Structures
1.
Amino acid sequence: MSRRKLVVSLIVVAMVVCLFSAVGLSAKQKVVFWSYAANNIEEWTAREADIEKKFNIDLQIEMIPQNAFVQTLQAAMMDGSGYPDIIEWMIEQNRILDADPKKCLVIPLDKYVAKSEAFKKVPEGRVAWTKYGGHVYGLPHDVHPVVLVYNDTLWKEVGVDVAKIKTWDEFFEAAKKLTAKKKADGSPMHYALPYDGGGLGATMWMIWNQTGAQVLDKNGKPIFTNKEFAEFVKWWVDKINTGMMCTWDWGNFGALLADGTLASYATPDWWIEQVNTAAAEGKYQFRMRDLPVYKKGGPRTASWGGTFMAITKLAKNQDKLYQIIEYMQYDEASLTKRYVDSRMIPPFSSVWNDEAFKQPDPRFGGQKTGVLLTDLADEIPSMNTGDIFWDAVFTDFNAEFTEMVAGNKSVEQGLKDAQAKAMRRVK
């Protein structure tokens, strides 16, 4: 081969190598994203093209059934293949976080959130639910502030203006008039609130948030027998025994509002829509307000439910993945649309002043419900969580609570037994 042909051949080879290198450099990173929440997946699917373009990624969105999510994630992480890079999981009853990062399925985000200007706008009370052992493991998708929705027609028929009530004790005192009306004229029973007889859930959960009575200390150890929590549990058992509350009926909730069985209910933003049918029928006038406080000076709201995003331990390029999840959760333009589409308050204070949150709500006589919800969002109480929290609450405490309500155990004995069970979970 002549020298000239050799040079040409080398040039051609070099060009081919450069071409394939360029293709490799421009190839999109595949990012696998798992979620269990169908309504959230609708949001991510709608934004998929924008997210992919901004970060030059191939975002693969996969829905994993809620009842199989944790097991599927654990199996994939143990196998080391088929695992997601990013997950979206529920704040409640999660079993994937651990105070020790070495035992956790996702990475602590501490170094990222410490430098993040966006993260400063997320209410601390909401962050608390993704913080174990002082480590922040997830970015919350929502705030879910809690309000009181009430049938203004029914309450005013018995001479009560719920808007003027300040404390829960005042609320339950006023609620006696609903029962008195039934006794006097035989009219259908109107219950003041619904409650979950199984224990610390639903209305009890929301009011417990307001008390500030912790069930774990800051080190994650159970403290069910502390004075504040014991006082609250005794107070709540007394309220159940008044007969002014009915069972929290998930499947029939809207109908109970429509026929007047339920005169009011405490609710996070995601459950407010249960009033839609009753409000549309026009038989009753409904209103919304902040929660009565448990004690004077206490928080006027609580929080219940929600999701967070996290990065799995085996994921590659974690710095970039953090940028992706922060954009997905807190892009301001998208957050306004999130509220318009879902009526759920995003956990990002800088968008709460947008006109979208200030529109009159016909369900509540034109009240600006978005203003009330965002006003309360910064008051979300902070609760201590930890490794044993969900098992200690939903297994240990709830089993004892049913015994307390049935009268089989005193509150003091039930809490003592719950504490003993929970202590056996401490590592």
2.
Amino acid sequence: MQFPTQRLLNRATWLKIHLYLALIAGFFFALMGLTGSISVYREELDELLNPKLVIEQPEGKRQSLDKIMAAVQAAHPNRYGSWTLELPRFSHGMITVWYDKPRETFFELYAPLMVSVNPYTGEVVASRFWGQTATTWLLDLHTQLRLDRVGWNTVGILGLLLMVSIGTGVYLWWPGIRGIRDALRIRHNAGMIRFAFDLHRLIGLLSASILLLLAFTGFHLSYPSVLETLVGSSGMEHGETGRNIISTAIPNNHPVGLESAEFVARGSFPRAELRRVTTPAGDSGIYRINLRQGSEVNQRHPYTTVWVDRWSGQVKEVRDPSAFTQGETFSTWIWPMHTGEAFGATGRFTWFLTGIGLFVLYVSGLLHWLHRHGKVKDREVNFSALRSLFYRLQEMGYRAGLVFFRLTVLLLQKAKHYAPQVIKGCKTLLQRLRSMLINRQKRLGKNDWE
């Protein structure tokens, strides 16, 4: 007689759960993976599709924030209220000025106006709405399936289902200690279906931990209140700007400008990097200066914030991540872990491959299921069709190598006049290095170098 727990842990039960999840939600998993991979490099792709957003040769100093804001208001004179200036992270990038609720997209969940401004000339280069460009459309598809709040909640639920799917997949993969080596093999000579199944198991195993992390963080981005309840934090969700602070000073004829507000804010964090400045809205509005300290993991959306009164020029409040509780600090990691920016360029590329891997998992699993139901016939895996491509790439490699060799020879010929100076410099460097090593050994009492 089997107990209920034994029936629950039965392999056939987990196989059915894994299968039904794949059939019901697998397409959406694949869609999330593919759109997420592309969105990892959203900014780079946007610049590739819109070359006018790239400053080829940055020259001179950056225009003041006041001049930048004046240019934006001149281009959009009928848009009143608060604007947010986002500083570029690289010298070739544009300043992006955000207007949260334009009348054209007012009833959409999130569709701000994005104004791109050349920081060196103050020229307004482009004015676009979120969701109406290729990259923001794809990101909306990833975050809310282009269905506003309903889609946002659905994506969160998909994150939970993906965690279950990954867990059941790892359980079904486990072959026992003796079978691990065989379970890691990819048999390309046993037919297309076997090859797809082996690929499915291997990619699933390699990407399981990262996919679990992405599903976990994705769920909490959709339902931030759950995490806030668990870790005892509040107001820490991605995009949260902190408390609603208003000005209590009497309006006057000498309001503080953007540059002055930034200067005041830097008094608390002199070494921090300026990321955003939000302008006041109405007489009770206040400047919100968003800075990034070197210890913060968030690159684009750091939490260091200073509120500056535009009438008195005084600091009204400061939010310093170094004073956060452990729960609040954990909350700040959710977004950068989901995007991969917490782990640098390597992390972003790994996240990109993992999203592609999720798409491959769906295709390979679906192919195996269709074969079992007689919808797809097995066939031999023929890699010979790729040989011509391989030879072509090999030939291109030889040509590139030849060009590189000729360039090297040319550079050596041009540098022959400088050879004596280079050799002399190398000798001097080696002599200094030798002296440093001798002095170090003397300090250690082991002078074996002379």
3.
Amino acid sequence: MYISHYDVRLFYKCPTLLYLNLHGPQDAKQIHPIIQRRKRYTRNSFLDSINVEQETQKTISQMEKAKKSINQCLISTNNLVAKVDRLNKVDNNSNLGSYSYRASFARNTLTPKKPLLMEGVFVSYILQKILNTEIKEFYVQKQNDIQSINIAEYFADFENDLVLIDEIIRGEKEISPNYVRTCRVCEWRFYCKKTAAESSDLTLISGIGGRIKKKLITLGIEDVPSLAQVDLNSLPKDLTNNADFDFFVKQAKSLTTKEAIVRESIKFPKNRIELFVDLEGSSHHNFVWIIGCLMRKEGEVDYISFLANTPKEEKEMVVSFSDFISDLGDDFTLYHWSSAEPQYFKNLFTKYSLPFKMLNKLHHNSFDLFPIFKRKIILPLFTYTLKDVANFLGFQWHDPLADGATSIVLFDKWYLEKDKKSLQKAISYNSDDCKALLIIKDYLSKKLSAD
């Protein structure tokens, strides 16, 4: 059974994903709308479309002819096979003579993350076998820039990982899930979350990934309940010096007791007008299509949306929102979730050369609700998304399965196909986001008020 570059990349992205794609219950997969729109590339679509021996021989024949570069080629040895963007001829002795080849990958960054880094190690490992020479680097190319990546230090550990990858592919080694932030758009996200919850896996704690999990397990801390009982003074300093570790233990206690833990009180602004704002962007033409605003004034609540149906309408939308803010004076607070909204406003005001005085006013009167969680209050939650927190507090979206990515898909359907129902659903989702912010702010005011 072949081990392909696809398998290696997936293993270093998530070993569980590699295992589940091959051996998991396929009816448990739920493809996220964003992933569904992408061209699906799998190990089977790659391996089923080629004759490995034949394509490898074509590549070797070009090597023997001392081609300067060989594009989109296949290399293999034993049960290892990889497709390579390019092989570049270099001066280095090999079984070909006084020259050899190095792999080059075309990417949008010159600093590859681990999956691509180890894919480069894998390809170089195969080349070493074919060319009978030591290879210490591969190349990453971004347009006209080329970066050499030194990989000599990775080969020893990689050979051990190859054994594990082979066991996973054959179904001889099952990998338990680590539930982390990147799981949110994975087709196995619900299955892994359920599986992790059943075993009280440590990665259910927001911020604990595979690396910290391994350290904790070596100390006999194997699940959330055992973490909840930990005495910080009994742990090695390299762990307790981590500023997040006190949170990890308290989060475990909150999950175990199913109760919120208040860490600090906080003073909220006392402005007469409260705005709960959420922006959404389109994946086409890179523009913001809605600024949603739920306004609470003297007990009355009203949802106002500023729309841009096309990129040409974006400036008019931003100006309308700016005028709306200007009419409010200074007696308002703009509540939002995370740093995305301030960055959106900064980009839009810069893009259209709008007065920075108004931008400064927005920033001065803005209040980010997201950092309060974990720092000031801990909830019995696995993740702290807007939807997770609001759902915990009893708020329900009109479409419980919708999320930010779904909103993008809905608007794009309107933008590309003029589907009015999709637009209304996207606006409704934005409205629910704004209402969720209000629910969260009121909960925090009640739980954390310093007055």
